[in-house]
Design goal:
alpha/beta; Rossmann fold; 3 domains; six-stranded parallel beta sheet; 38% helix; globular
């Protein structure tokens, strides 16, 4: 190949990538995660060369992709993640799935060999076409950069940005082949394009038929994906309906309508079985008890979700409105009478308050070291304006079931696919968005993404990682195998004790470790480390079998207290 041909290829690679980055930055891209590799060199250098974009380098592609996911979650803006070719690209699949199912805008750029080197045994080359199957909102296998396709480059960038940020946000996948040489200097970029700014955003408010009848005894379930939590709470106030608020909904604040302990209230027959209508916004909560009630009640059930996602595993929804929560709530004005009976809401309020007192009194012992108590302490100790990332399995349930309501806290969790992939990295990403952040995570999930700690002390973030260490998979102790299998069989397959000294592992990453003696000291440690700044890890050692007993005791006492307050069917 002639030197002039080499120079043209290098120049086109650099110019193409600089054009993509220039367009994305103009549209609002502020962050990119770059995983080191050779084939991705042109785009990596273009990102580093644009001062409008913060570049975060991560050694591990899977952790890096979840870090990008965390930044996108917290900032509500698309984030780019870049890998080289081959199995590096495959490492991003779990994050792409999570971004798809939970509607997180992500631009995934995978470098690739030129088409002529695919399928012929070239090193570090796999089939990257449609690698992430149906998860991306858009997939483009882009042509090699060439003078003849310069006019398409900005449109490619705009299409990717629009697909990631549209009415149904999610991941897009750009497969970018680059020929060698990979190092070049960009020439003048193609001119900008007038017209559409490349962000589809939301269309005009959708026209829908307002609900004609609002019964006295209804319940609102507020899940994630609500654009205006206060609009939902205002609707509940006008209806005199309780709101079962998922921690991620933004509705779980100190308001008379908000119910924090529905999981306990619904563990036996009660007034919830007399509900005449369910109004759902976004996703379902994690409580199996609540979700079984949702599926079995057999009343009108309206589901509002702006993305059009079907979240109805039991086929209980009778009406589906593809609008934002704020649009739906705006359409209810004038349709609700002003002389509604407040006794229904008062019944729920009294029961929830009684359950809260019972939970607090049960966990008040000075030496109490429990997983529900840890969750309550963590939620209470984060300063206003802070963020909490909650891992799947038991932590997200403990926060939903036992933590009290409070204002001033943003809560995030990877509940799209409900996996334990990349939770540490997601929390690092949330912290990179600029708020004091706490991660509540179990030991297995922590080990699963220990590479999320790579270089974390150099990222300039304020993050406290609270690890509940019960030496294994604690959630399985609540499932049928715990009582149907022998102890040895259960421990081998489900309990899976790891025997790892987590403090030594954390010290290997150069991070300070605190070990909490009780629930109270967890809260003290969280507050102190966030005030000090930097990255800290707090270990809480618990026992899996004792944890089951604690949950049973809390649920029993909470339900008994609710019944004493009047929580029973007339």
């Amino acid at each position: 190949m002639s030197s002039s041909r080499d120079e043209m290829i290098a120049t086109m690679n650099a110019t193409f990538c600089a054009t993509l980055v220039d367009e994305w930055a103009a549209l609002g891209l502020t962050d990119a995660v770059v995983c080191p590799g050779s084939r991705s060199t042109p785009l990596a250098l273009a990102l580093v060369g644009d001062e409008r974009v913060r570049v975060h380098v991560h050694h591990d592609e899977r952790s890096g992709s979840f870090m990008a996911l965390g930044i996108a979650r917290a900032s509500a803006r698309p984030v780019l993640v870049l890998t080289t070719s081959g199995t590096a690209a495959a490492q991003l699949h779990a994050a792409v799935v999570e971004a798809s199912l939970d509607h997180v805008p992500l631009i995934v750029a995978t470098a690739d060999r030129p088409p002529r080197l695919r399928g012929v045994g070239a090193p570090q080359t796999i089939d990257q076409i449609g690698l992430y199957t149906s998860s991306p909102r858009l997939f483009l296998d882009v042509d090699l950069p060439d003078p003849t396709n310069r006019g398409d480059w900005r449109a490619i960038a705009r299409s990717a940005f629009a697909a990631a940020t549209g009415a149904d946000p999610g991941p897009v996948h750009l497969n970018l082949p680059f020929d060698e040489p990979l190092l070049g200097i960009a020439e003048e970029l193609p001119p900008t394009i007038d017209g559409d700014n490349g962000n589809a955003g939301r269309a005009a408010p959708t026209t829908f038929e307002p609900v004609s009848t609002w019964p006295e005894r209804g319940v609102i379930i507020a899940g994630s994906g609500i654009d205006d939590p206060m609009a939902v709470l205002d609707l509940a106030k006008r209806l005199h309906w309780p709101v079962i608020a998922d921690p991620r909904s933004g509705c779980r604040i100190d308001q008379p309508m908000v119910i924090a302990h529905a999981d306990a209230l619904m563990r036996a027959d009660g007034p919830h079985l007399d509900a005449e209508m369910i109004l759902r916004f976004g996703s379902l909560p994690s409580s199996k008890v609540v979700n079984q009630w949702v599926g079995a009640l057999g009343v009108d059930q309206v589901h509002v979700d702006s993305t059009g996602s079907v979240n109805d595993p039991q086929g209980a929804v009778t009406r589906f409105d593809v609008v934002t929560a704020s649009e739906f709530c705006a359409g209810t004005h004038g349709a609700i009478d002003n002389d509604r009976d407040g006794r229904w809401l008062a019944l729920w309020r009294d029961a929830d308050d009684a359950a809260e007192r019972a939970i607090a009194e049960t966990l008040v012992a000075p030496d109490s070291r429990t997983e529900p108590g840890t969750a309550r302490a963590v939620v209470a100790s984060i300063p206003d304006g802070g963020s909490l990332v909650v891992s799947s399995s038991m932590p997200v349930r403990d926060v939903e079931w036992y933590a009290t309501v409070r204002d001033g806290l943003s809560i995030f969790s990877n509940r799209g696919a409900n996996g334990i992939d990349g939770v540490v990295s997601t929390a690092v990403g949330v912290a990179l968005a600029g708020t004091p952040t706490v991660l509540l995570i179990g030991d297995v999930a922590f080990l699963h993404d220990i590479n999320g700690l790579l270089g974390v002390d150099r990222r300039g973030i304020n993050l406290c990682v609270v690890v509940i260490d019960n030496d294994g998979g604690g959630i399985f102790s609540f499932l049928p195998p715990a009582t149907s299998l022998s102890h040895d069989e259960f421990e081998l397959i489900f309990g899976t004790p790891h025997g790892v000294d987590l403090s030594m592992l954390v010290h290997a990453h150069g991070l300070p470790v605190l070990e909490a003696a009780d629930d109270l000291s967890v809260g003290v440690a969280v507050a102190a480390t966030l005030q000090a700044g930097g990255v800290h890890v707090v270990l809480v050692h618990t026992d899996r079998e004792a944890n089951v007993v604690t949950h049973e005791l809390l649920n029993s006492r909470a339900l008994d207290a609710a019944r004493a307050s009047g929580w029973f069917r007339a």
